[in-house]
Design a protein that fits this description.
Helix content is 36%, strand content 23%. By secondary structure, it is an alpha/beta fold. The chain has a domain at 7-61 and 330-381: Roll (Urease, subunit C, domain 1), CATH 2.30.40.10. The strands form three sheets. It has a seven-stranded mixed β-sheet. Strand 8, helix 7 and strand 9 form a beta-alpha-beta unit. It is globular. The chain binds zinc ion.
Length: 387
């Protein structure tokens, strides 16, 4: 929490100390405060600025985008044309023959890297501190993501996916050597016994395991929970009893309301809230939505206002987003860590209203990432698309 400035620190101040804020969002509330940063490290948050603030505004943590597929940005227009012709979700995204998977297989590495780099820069410019990518394409898919993310100061967390739909321990080991876990399309796409072997193998290697669930059709929740998932994605067709099971087992859900809507589906915000299931928002396929998580929050608040309010949504996005990206659920202070936050040009009392507006990315004055400051002007110089 915000502390009074310790007088003892004054004589030791060096010119490298910079401070930001006026107000700070921390652990669930907005308070008056200034974050001090020295050599890229947060040295404390104080009610009185240690030095003349470099920038005034509302300081908030960079949010996590809890679910993306970064590889299919190149077919955004094509997919919209297919949807207009009435093609189904399965026809577009289901492995192995959906349009998306044929695109990923038939497009050369350089083009995919270019598409993904643009997408990751869009996420960064929209204020995201991390993305959780259900990375298709086996080892090749992971290599491409790593090259695309390059030096962009965002945590691009990949959960790799076997290239086929059968258990291959050699391939799994090779994928797990390169990322923190495995994600698969859905139980219904697999021979159940094969997927059970995959899940068992991943857990044996202390990897993380996640999958889409009940997106287009309801799947048996107990069969899914048998796989020991760290989190699920979608649960559009889940029933209250399914969500009660998720709450009992403490399994969070990444939900993607804009992507669901594009395919004529409605995100289960009512059942998530009613049954106290942890959730965080994601933006899903690059072909279906921008990675701007503020835009996703705005859409969610406008279309599900009966079930969720801005305060709960933002706090959950922080708490559960962190759990989904790194398996931990902490909102500890950042003192001693590399500076990682946004400075917004917005009065603190308008934060919730602005969240519902969905355009907070346009109010970012500064992105502090990996201890370094980036201004919107620099982002424009990098030719980042902020739309
Ligand atoms: Zn997905």
């Amino acid at each position: 929490m915000v502390k009074n400035i310790p007088l003892i620190s004054q004589p030791f101040l060096t010119r490298s100390v910079k401070c930001y804020g006026g107000h700070v969002w921390a652990n669930g509330s907005i308070e008056k405060g200034y974050v001090s940063v020295e050599d890229g490290i947060v040295t404390g948050t104080y009610t009185t600025p240690e030095v003349e603030p470099s920038l005034k505004g509302l300081v908030i943590p960079r949010p996590i985008n809890a679910h993306v597929h970064s590889g299919d940005r190149g077919i955004k227009d094509m997919v919209r044309r297919h949807l207009k012709k009435g093609r189904s979700l399965n026809n577009i995204v289901a492995p192995p023959n959906g349009i998306k998977h044929r695109h990923l297989e038939n497009t050369d590495d350089d083009q995919l890297i270019l598409d993904m780099t643009i997408y990751i820069k869009e996420a960064f410019a929209a204020g995201c501190g991390g993305i959780v990518d259900f990375r298709e394409g086996g080892i090749r898919g992971l290599r491409i993501l790593k090259q695309a993310a390059g030096e962009i100061p965002i945590r691009a967390e990949a959960l790799g996916r076997p290239a086929g739909l059968s258990y291959d321990p050699v391939e799994l080991n090779a994928i797990l050597d390169r990322c923190s876990g495995i994600s698969v399309s859905a139980l219904c796409d697999w021979e159940p016994s094969e997927l059970e072997k995959v899940a068992k193998h991943v857990h044996g290697k202390k990897g993380r395991f996640a999958l889409h669930a009940s997106e287009n059709i309801r799947e048996n929740i107990d069969d899914i929970l048998e796989l020991g998932p760290d989190f699920l994605v979608h649960m559009v067709k889940g029933t209250d009893s399914d969500f009660q099971r998720l709450a009992q087992e403490n399994v969070p859900v990444a939900v993607c309301p804009r992507a669901n809507a594009l395919f004529g589906l409605k995100a289960p915000m009512d059942k998530l809230v009613r049954n106290n299931v942890e959730f965080a928002l994601g933006t899903d396929n690059a072909m279906s939505a921008t990675p701007d998580i503020f835009s996703e929050m705005g859409y969610t608040l406008r279309h599900h206002s009966r079930h969720i309010n801005p305060d709960r949504l933002w706090h959950g996005q922080q708490l559960v987003g962190k759990k989904i990206i790194n398996g931990q659920q902490t909102l500890s202070g950042t003192t001693g860590e590399r500076a990682d936050f946004l400075v917004l040009s917005i009065p603190p009392e308008r934060f919730h209203e602005a969240l519902a507006g969905g355009d907070l990315a346009q109010r970012i004055s500064l992105i502090m990432a990996d201890g370094r400051p980036f201004s919107p002007e620099e982002l424009i110089e990098q030719k980042v698309d902020r739309t």
